[in-house]
């Protein structure tokens, strides 16, 4: 798909995410808005996945390590056809399979359960290593939050990926500068991240995480380096696309009231007009 089409899909997904959070009265909308463009580019431009065969052994894998942003993943899975779009209305409802964190047993298209931060990248390293051992060409992608990069398990996985020369692994850091309750810089400022990943033997690229052209190029197989895992540091904005949520730590898991919901939806709908044919 062209970047214009991808932006239109991402905008539609943001509106559906907003609606589901408002309906459920819960969610992590700020981080969902920041990660939406990354998920859109992966599922609609880069990855080899088939909703009719969600366990195809030759599929690409995507691990959403920042599992609290599960709703953004559910929305993209619905948009892609893995689950019915109408099921999004059951998010967080009793007996719904769309829980607050992804569950690979219940939801087709989810590769592994995530929630406890720092677990997704180690699992993804195992997936990428398995592909190498089996001589398979499928790729593994993992999205982590920048606050999550404070977890030591991630750095153990980073060392292992370099040791095993996992050039079929792409780590994407959703670098919005905010985590629950505070800015990254005020908590445990691990930025700048690029020189650290470089020092561990990774190929690193920093991009605008809301620019579809930059995202698609950065995660394409053509930009990988033989024998090196790749890290894409995506500079994003928490609450992207909604003025009063943008770069505002309060919206890590705050729910909009009716007035805020109407304003946010209006802003997203106005932006959608830019992508209308």
Based on the model shown, name its key terms.
277 residues; alpha/beta; Rossmann fold; five-stranded parallel sheet; two-stranded antiparallel ribbon; 9 helices; 39% helix
Secondary-structure blueprint:
Blueprint lengths: L2 H22 L4 H18 L14 E4 L5 H11 L39 H14 L6 E6 L6 H12 L5 E7 L2 E2 L2 E2 H4 L6 H6 L3 E6 L3 H7 L11 E6 L22 H15 L5
Parallel strand pairs: 1-2, 2-3, 3-7, 6-7
Antiparallel strand pairs: 4-5
Helix pairs in contact: 1-2, 1-3, 1-9, 2-3, 4-5
- CATH topology name, in short, is Rossmann fold
The secondary-structure class comes to alpha/beta
Count of helical stretches? 9
Give a count of the beta strands, DSSP E runs of length 2 or more: 7
End-to-end distance? 15 Å
Helix content: 25-40%
Q: What general form does the structure show?
A: globular
When the domains are counted, the total is 1
Portion of residues in beta strands equals 5-15%
Report the CATH architecture. 3-Layer(aba) Sandwich
CATH class: Alpha Beta
Helix/strand order, N-terminal first? HHEHHEHEEEHHEHEH
> How would you name the oligomeric state of the polypeptide chains in this document?
single chain
Instruction: Report the mean per-residue pLDDT as an integer.
Output: 96
């Amino acid at each position: 798909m062209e970047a214009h089409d991808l932006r239109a899909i991402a905008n539609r997904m943001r509106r559906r995410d907003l609606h589901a959070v408002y309906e459920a009265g819960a969610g992590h909308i700020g981080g969902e808005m920041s990660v939406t463009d990354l998920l859109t580019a992966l599922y609609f431009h880069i990855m080899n996945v088939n909703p009719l065969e969600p366990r195809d052994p030759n599929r690409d894998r995507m691990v959403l390590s920042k599992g609290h942003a599960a709703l953004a993943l559910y929305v993209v899975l619905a948009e892609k056809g893995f689950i019915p779009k109408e099921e999004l209305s059951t998010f967080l409802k009793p007996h719904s399979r769309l829980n607050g964190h992804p569950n690979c047993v219940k939801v087709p298209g989810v590769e592994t359960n995530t929630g406890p931060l720092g677990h997704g990248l180690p699992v993804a390293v195992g997936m990428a290593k398995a592909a190498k051992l089996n001589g398979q060409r499928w790729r593994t992608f993992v999205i982590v939050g920048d606050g999550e990069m404070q977890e030591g398990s991630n750095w153990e996985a980073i060392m292992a990926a370099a040791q095993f020369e996992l050039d079929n692994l792409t780590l994407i850091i959703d670098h919005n500068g905010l985590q629950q309750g505070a800015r990254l810089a005020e908590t445990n400022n691990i930025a700048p991240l690029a020189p650290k990943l470089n020092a561990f033997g990774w190929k690193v690229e920093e991009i605008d995480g809301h620019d579809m052209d930059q995202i698609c190029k950065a995660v394409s197989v053509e930009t990988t380096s033989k024998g090196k895992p790749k890290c894409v540091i995506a500079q994003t904005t928490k609450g992207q696309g909604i003025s009063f949520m943008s770069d505002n730590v309060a919206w890590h898991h705050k729910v909009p009231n009716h007035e805020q919901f109407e304003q946010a939806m209006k802003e997203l709908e106005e932006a959608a007009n830019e992508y209308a044919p």
